[in-house]
Amino acid sequence: MAANKTLLILPGDGIGVEVMTQVRRIVDWFDKRRAVGFDILEHPVGGAAYDAHGTPLSDEALSEAMNADAVLLGAVGGPQYDNVPRDKRPEAGLLKLRKEMDLFANLRPAMVFDALVDASTLKREVVEGLDILILRELTAGVYFGEPRGIEVLADGTRRAIDTQAYTENEIRRIADVAFEMAAKRGNKVHSVEKANVMETGVFWREVVTALHREKFSQVELHHMYADNCAMQLVRNPKQFDIIVTDNLFGDILSDCAAMLTGSLGMLPSASLGAEDETGRRHALYEPVHGSAPDIAGQDKANPLATILSYAMMLRYSFGLLDDADLVEKAVQNVLGAGIRTGDIVGPGMKAVSCSQMGDAVLAELDKLAA
Ligand code: NAD
Question: Is the CB of 193 under 6 A from ligand 1?
Fold first, then answer.
């Protein structure tokens, strides 16, 4: 691993700062023990950047994000910014970052750790060992399609319109990511749409099928209607490895899959941009949760979602599959030893702090690497 890869760390606000402190300790551990070295840059983002620079994303932070090999973000937001103008709000900084980096592929893994099987609302046998990845198209589809709006008709009644639209390139590039990832996982992709009732669904299926035939025929490909997929996710989620779908269906299905795992404090995510001519792509890794103002500053947050986001970074931006496995294994063992933060604590267990959870993961990494 060359030491000249650049990692930009954006801790953000609230518990973002606390969980990122623990991740920095893990990054340092890899730097010392495994020669996984990064040039690390750090900037405030969100409310912290507004306080420091009067904007939730400074030009410098944005430019460094565009040049970095990967960006790791904590969380942004907080009630103290509720009355700040909309374009200066913490969330505006994050949206601008995602837009400028053109992050069209959102990856949300749903992984059930053995020790947390009982935190799921589903039966043990349905979720035990679950490890699936939802790949959602993030920059097109009905959330962006034109025309949109609410209009008054000739008879004085009103009508609302949204437009679902996908170009061939938009479908191809997300399907391409899905097939590429399949090679690093279980080699199976379910492409999900509503080809039975939507033109975009028919087109989606056609484009995915053509790409599969052209470049990825070694990957097992299934097509599924979105309504059936929602049903199958709660009936038999282990049939899936990768689900690739559009913006709207991905929004709904990824939340559904997330709940199979039980806790918000455990969920990592990644968002990827297009490959440039050198094969490099913009990438942003972040936990699914927000800044949790209710527990911020109390050293109570669960840092595992962000630690698992770092593992995703090792896997998807740097191809360091063994190191990513090592982080995930350490997390699994820590949970297996009954070490839990407040959000995932079971009956009769004592909750540890955010920093104690960091200590436990580091101790486990030491043990696994010994
Ligand atoms: P939240 O995810 O911050 O918190 C929801 C609940 O889950 C809270 O009770 C919180 O204590 C708990 N929780 C979340 N993460 C946890 C963790 N790691 N460990 C332990 N408990 C955890 O969502 P919210 O309360 O709706 O939003 C709070 C702020 O975060 C808002 O300003 C919102 O805009 C922002 N937000 C930011 C992001 C992001 O940065 N990507 C995402 C969602 C919300």
Answer: no
Residue-wise over 156-171: b if at least 16 C-beta within 10 A, else e?
eeeeeeeebebeeebb
Contact (CB, 8 A) for 105 and 174: yes
Ligand 1 contact via 290 beta carbon (within 6 Å): yes
Q: From the CA of 78, how far away is ligand 1's center (Å)?
A: 9
The CA 303 to ligand 1 mean position distance, Å, reads 13
Q: Which atom of ligand 1 is nearest to the CA of 354?
A: 19
C-alpha 204/C-alpha 192 separation (Å) is 9
Instruction: Establish whether 194 is a catalytic residue.
Output: yes
Percent of the chain with pLDDT over 70: 99
75 within ligand 1 shell (Cβ under 6 A): yes
pLDDT digits 0-9 by tens, 332-346: 999 999 999 999 888
Ligand 1 atom closest to the CA of 294, numbered from 1: 11
Say if CB 134 and CB 254 are below 8 A apart.
yes
Residues 129, 256 within the same domain: yes
Which of 28, 39, 51, 255 is an active site residue? 255
Q: Are residues 179 and 136 in the same domain?
A: yes
Is 94 a pocket residue for ligand 1 (Cβ < 6 Å)? yes
Quick: pLDDT tens for 175-204.
Answer: 999 999 998 789 999 999 999 999 999 999
C-alpha distances (whole Å) from 19 to each of 104, 112, 154, 230 are 26, 21, 55, 32
pTM of the predicted model as reported, rounded to 2 decimal places:
0.89
Q: Report pLDDT digits (tens) over 83-117.
A: 999 899 999 999 899 889 999 999 999 999 888 89
Query: Looking at residue 262, what is its pLDDT?
Result: 73
**78 C-beta closer than 6 A to ligand 1:** yes
- Residue 12 alpha carbon, nearest atom of ligand 1: 40
143 is catalytic: yes
Q: Which residues pair with 146 in a beta bridge?
A: none
Within this chain, do residues 19 and 122 fall inside the same structural domain, yes or no? no
Domain of 208?
117-263
155 assigned to active site? no
End position of a domain, from candidates 211, 235, 263: 263
